[in-house]
Structures are given as C-alpha cells and as structure tokens.
Design a protein that fits this description.
With 361 residues, the chain is α/β, with parallel strands linked by helices. The chain folds into two domains: 51-232 and 334-356, Rossmann fold (3-Layer(aba) Sandwich); 233-332. The chain is 34% helix and 20% strand. Strands 1, 2, 3, 4, 5, 6, 7, 8, 9, 10, 11, 12 and 13 form a 13-stranded mixed β-sheet that branches. The chain starts with 12 loop residues before the first helix and ends with a helix. The model is unreliable at 1-11 (pLDDT under 50).
Length: 361
C-alpha cells in the first residue's frame, strides 16, 4: 500500500494566505531593520543638506495626511518669513526627469505628480523639486534658493539619504494595532517612531476626538514624543471651471468621484454637510482619470460631480466640455484641542530657534 504523503488536515486557503503574509512580513521587517541599522551606524550613508530641513513622513502605506501636513507646516514657516522648497519623489507623475520648479513657474500634475502640484497650487511662492534622487534635488536647489529657505521633504521618513533637522510623522488612528506589509500596512516597525521628533494624528470631522485623544495619550506615554491631533474641516466649494466659490454646494444629489487612499473620510465629510450623493465612484489612490471612467452613466450631466481638490487636478486633464459641472472641496486643518496646538507651535518654535542659533554662529 502506497503511503499517502498529502497533508490529511489541509488548511483553508485564506489561512494559508495569512501564514504567507505573516512570513513575508517577518522577512520585510528584517530587511527594514538592517537598512535602518546601517543608516544609524554609518554616517557617510546620509548627506547633510545646505538648508534647514523638515521631513513630513509616515510609517503606514497611504492615507495619513502627509501632504496636507506638509502644506500646513510650509504655510506656517512662510508666515514666519522663510522661503519654502518642497522635495518630493513625485509619485504617479508621467515624467522621469529631475525637475526644479521656481516660484515664478507654473506646473502640471503630469510632470511633478498630483501631490507636489497641489502643494504648489496652494503655496505658489514655494519651490518644487520632483525626482527620486532627493539628495541631487537638494544640491541643485542649494545654488538657486535664498539662504532663508527651508527644505520640506514630503513623505520623507524612509528617505534617509538626506539628513533632516526635524522628523514629523503622521500616524493612523489604528497604528498601535497594525502589522508590517504585507500582513498589514506598516512600512516600518512601530519602534521606528522613537526616531521621530513629533507625531501628528490627522482625523476626519466625523472621527471620534475622544478616541483619538486616547490614542495620542498612548503614543506620548510609549514613545515620549509630543503629539498633535489635526482635524480636516471643510472650508468652501470651488467650481473647477469658473473658479466660483460657495459656502454651500449648489448641487442636489451630486455624483461623488474620488481616487484617494481613504475615500470613506471624504464621503463621511460631505455627508456631514447634509449632502446626499446619488452615486459614488471610488478609484485607487492617484488614479489617472479617463473619459471611459464616466461613460454609460445616466443623468450625469444634470447631477454634476463633486470631488477632492487633489482629484480635481487629475480630472482637469479631461476636456471640461465632456464632463458636467465639477465642484471640489477646499479643506483646512485645525487643531483638535489646546494641547495639540501647543505641541505643534512648541515644536516648530524649537526648530526655528535652532535655525537662528546656527545662523548666529
């Protein structure tokens, strides 16, 4: 009788996949740990920039509000008299060149990416550097920007080749229970938060501030870092074609279009404004819109579209005559409480003080 070598108790497919994901996470974690250990031990692996540098980053893949926080910091520093240069990899852009965009130049999302383009749109006096080699971008910028310029790395926590003076990490509200990729969403282990200088929890208007406050408390106690909670709040609506602004959306039962990492946050936000979508079209983050995405939809032109500001940049590549009237929502960040506000300004003032001391030497 031939021995049966097959597993007599086969695991369900989903459980096999779970074990595979966990094994891959362990391997990924080991590779990340080795990389970070190398950068911690060998100073020559990283390069000091010629200007004070802030990194806005995260340890989770997508959806933690890094770009809005980069703009928030840039706006604050600009109000303090600094010039701003954003350094970005330019994810999703069609160009592969290293690009420098000066304050006097306009920029398309196709050339630099939707997030750098959005930063430039909302802070037009800033420089934009787009390219995978941010050390090279920093060197090229050094010969062109003023001595009062601050470099801001958008999504820069894992980019350790360029040193920074301040590491700001945007974290998800479930960060403490998350796992490493691919079993979870973490790009680095939670222990990497010890490397940060300041943590920011970004939240939607419908999120529970009480729950976020509890998460912030746990983060402060565990990592001994200052923590702020920033709430995304609606500011006003903008007609994408005419530029008209309105406090109230002039559409009834619009179609919602979004291609962002956390579409539910935007959907919950507009529902909190008593807007009832007739249909929701959700795409992957950084989706490049085509007219085919909207074909076959009934009553599209009579209902109109609403979308995020970042999505509108990519929607604008479609001939506006082929779409109904489109409105996007301007969103602002606001502090959830006095403790969050104090933590942010204290951190930024310490950064400012270090710059001033260095310049005085």
């Amino acid at each position: 009788m031939r021995e049966n070598l097959e597993n007599p108790f086969p695991l369900p497919l989903w459980l096999n996949k779970c074990f595979a994901a966990q094994s891959a996470s362990v391997l990924y974690r080991a590779v990340v740990a080795l990389r970070n250990k190398a950068y911690d031990k060998f100073a020559f692996l990283s390069h000091p920039p010629s200007r004070p540098t802030i990194s806005i980053g995260g340890i989770r893949a997508g959806g933690t509000g890094k770009t809005p926080v980069a703009h928030f910091c840039g706006e604050y520093l600009s109000s303090r008299g600094y010039d701003i240069a954003f350094l970005s990899r330019g994810y999703g852009r069609r160009s592969k060149d290293q690009l420098l965009i000066s304050p006097s130049e306009t920029v398309s999302w196709e050339s630099v990416g939707d997030e750098p383009s959005l930063l430039k749109k909302n802070l037009p006096q800033s420089w934009i550097a787009a390219g995978s080699n941010r050390v090279q971008s920093a060197k090229e910028l050094s010969g062109r920007v003023s001595k009062d310029t601050v470099f801001i790395l958008d999504d820069g926590f894992q980019h350790r080749r360029l040193r920074r003076n301040l590491d700001i990490i945007c974290v998800h509200e479930h960060v403490l229970s998350d796992f490493m990729i691919p079993h979870g969403y973490l790009r680095e282990p939670l222990s990497s938060l010890f490397r940060a200088d300041f943590l920011i929890l970004t939240a939607g208007i419908s999120d529970s501030v009480e729950r976020l406050t509890e998460v912030a408390k746990k983060l402060r106690n565990r990592y001994k870092k200052p923590v702020s909670i920033l709430i995304q709040k609606p500011e006003y609506w903008v007609n994408g074609t005419s530029g008209e602004t309105s406090a109230v959306l002039p559409l009834k039962e619009p179609i919602v279009v979004c291609g962002i990492a956390r579409p539910h946050r935007f959907i919950n936000l507009i529902r909190s404004m008593d807007i009832r979508p007739s249909e929701i079209l959700s795409f992957k983050d950084h989706h490049i819109f085509q007219m085919n995405d909207f074909l076959g939809m009934r009553n599209l032109y009579s209902k109109g579209l609403v979308t995020t500001e970042k999505d509108f940049l990519r929607l604008s590549s479609i001939d506006s005559a082929k779409l109904p009237q489109t409105w996007y929502l301007k969103i602002k960040l606001d502090f959830a409480d006095n403790e969050s506000q104090t933590a942010f300004y204290s951190t930024m003032d310490k950064f400012n003080h270090k710059i001033t001391q260095k310049e005085a030497l």
